Amino acid sequence: MNDTLQKNRRRKTHLPKGRQLDDTAVAEVTDLLKDAPMRRDLLIEHLHKIQDHFGCLEAKHMRALAEIMRLSQAEIYEVASFYDHFDIVKEGEEKPAPVTIRVCDSLSCMMAGAEKLIGDLESGVNPDEIRIMRAPCMGGCDVAPAARIGDHELGNATVESLLALAEGKTNNKQIPAVIPDYKKLEAYKAEGGYEALEKVRSGAIDFDTMLETLSDAGLRGLGGAGFPVHMKWKFVRGYQGPRLMSINGDEGEPGTFKDRYYLERDPHRMFEGALIGAHMVEAERIYLYMRDEYPAVLEILRREIAALEEAGITEPGFIELRRGAGAYICGEESAMLESIEGKRGIPRHRPPFIAERGLFGQPTLNHNVETLWWLPDIIRHGPKWFADKGIEGHPGARSWSVSGRVKNPGVKLAPAGITIRQLIDDYCDGMADGHTFKAYYPGGASGGVLPASMDDIPLDFGGKLAELGSFVGSHAVVILSDQDNVKDAVLNTLQFFKHESCGQCTPCRGGTEKMVSMLESDEPLDEEAIRDLEAVMRDSSICGLGQAAPNPVNHLLVHFREDLAK
What homologous superfamily is domain 99-174 in, according to CATH? Predict the structure, then answer.
């Protein structure tokens, strides 16, 4: 090495090791965060504020944040780099284009032409002014293809509609979220809202009576696992306090959009249910984790949490809103808790039930949005009202997110135990014109894919569906037709799992990558290798992502062999 280069690379002895502190950046970050607490669990919130303000996370601002929070630079970087929505800019790198268009490329949007939309956008914009990005499921499956420019979400997106929104804009902040017309606090109270909460708080309904009511209603967790709610409450209340509560609003499963649907229309039903649950298990605080893909929902939640505090229904800070940052794995319960604590969303090594050591090591009651959404009505109308909404021994109503090749997609309120044929014909007005029913995903990407010939199976937790290696999960139903190739659909879902694997365990990280490469290959599929890989992933993956990812591939080999060669 020549002497001049060696001298330039030598660290100046009066400076500390590593990236040097930029005083201007420290002042900028300090001013931006102002009086915000510098707690470790708020790291992701602070990263959001920096990116929202500056449009990206420059190295100098991350270094400044590390100094202000008294954390190592490595801690800041490992968290920021884990989440898709943080744009890290290293020294010497160019900042991203000032305006970003995200286009969903998950299954329902793929069938609706997302690939062509992405290609046309990429060839029709100046990349220095507008960045085109692929995005995993954005919860707009019923209005596919879904896209987002800045914080403005757009369904049935076209090149023309997106570029019209971008015209004349010089940064993402100039394209804010559009807030739908939703039921605000006063309107909800005028219809009897929060009367159920008052009954609970007054002692008119005690804990044992509430458990009996939930048991008789047959209410289960509706985020995917289907765990009986009354049992979860009993477990959590049985642990020594202090206790906490978390709400999982990270519905990232492709095909799922029911929680978004309810929160954009009637958020206080969820809030009332959450406050009832928190009271019953004596939780000291509620942490509401909402995915970053829903900017309009996030704004609604901010406004209505403030309204609850102003009305005296909750104490200031009792409900704390936490914003995700683009990681499907954070829909997994323990990964969500890690993210709320300001860490990478990596699932914990744990037994199936996490209540004893949840958030910050305290017993934690965790529920999905829709589960809580039903609670006020169950108290108001009684358990039989809810139980009778199912059919043939399947208690309860369910919210089905239906997308794909149906005439009328959307959230359908239908009985538990309904068949796919009934759901298509009676709730979606049949198949889309020119399409013949061929296959369906009964529970999103991880629930596998079944042929149309199996159209009489009751859709509910367990039962015949489980015997077929499938499940309803979060009740995300995607319908395929004779114009779709099932292998292409399965490849799309496996690409999603490959991208969203947290990378913690080799069976999932390497398994999803290998399955994608085998499905993409022009060579005949090595079915023996696929089966071996499937067994390893199911038996050895830490969490449900790796365990369930092989489901669509398994069903492709069992039910759709004619599509393998296409």
Answer: Glutaredoxin (3.40.30.10)
